[in-house]
Design goal:
Elements: H1 2-18, E1 21-37, E2 47-60, E3 63-76, E4 84-99, E5 104-120, E6 126-143, E7 148-160, E8 172-185
Antiparallel strand pairs: 1-2, 1-8, 2-3, 3-4, 4-5, 5-6, 6-7, 7-8
Length: about 190
């Protein structure tokens, strides 16, 4: 079994090594709708977000690897009640891996970083909280020539808070987001 895995690995290395390689600077801008996942301590009402991504896309044959930095600003819509998140900001680093099939590129991504948010407590006092942030998701991009792509993405993200107030220790904000992103390759 180990011999077959080694032979398959060598075959893939030779195949991928013989394909043309390319690297491009990637600059992305996106907009998303966000839907909070209910929890007992804090609530994220429906919201919108904008995000920007800065990365470098490495293309090796049909495989694309893109390490990137991602900044997201989220704002809740509608009226806020006690323990509702008003706004959030996340800064994260991570990457995506995709496979180009003609002009379509399905991919998966993961981001890790720091999230800051403001929420209104039950006594209607505004609080700020900061904590570790992560997001995992997938995307499908459609190439618009060699220098741009337009895609749809969906992901699950979470910010864990600490040191807020006694009844909100170790609170989490969980969300699902879906939206569109335009990426330019320079």
């Amino acid at each position: 079994m180990a011999r077959r895995i080694a032979i398959a690995g060598i075959f893939m290395a030779v195949l991928l090594g013989s394909l043309p390689a390319r690297a491009d600077f990637a600059l992305g801008l996106g907009a998303s709708g966000n839907f909070g996942i209910e929890n007992k301590q804090l609530r994220l009402p429906d919201s919108w977000s904008v995000d920007g991504a800065l990365g470098y896309r490495f293309t090796l044959g049909i495989v694309e690897l893109t390490p990137e930095l991602d900044l997201t600003y989220l704002r809740s819509t509608g009226s806020l009640k006690g323990n509702d998140v008003d706004w959030a900001f996340q800064a994260a680093a991570g990457g995506r891996i995709g496979v180009q099939i003609y002009f379509v590129v399905p991919s998966v991504y993961v981001l890790f970083g720091l999230g800051q948010l403001q929420f209104t407590s039950q006594d209607l006092v505004k609080h700020d909280g900061t904590g570790p942030y992560y997001e995992v998701g997938g995307a499908v991009d459609f190439r618009l020539g060699g220098s741009a792509s337009l895609g749809v993405h969906a992901g699950y993200g979470s910010v864990s808070l600490s040191n807020v107030e006694a009844d909100l220790q170790n609170a989490k904000i969980n969300r699902v987001r879906a939206g569109v992103r335009l990426t330019l390759f320079l």
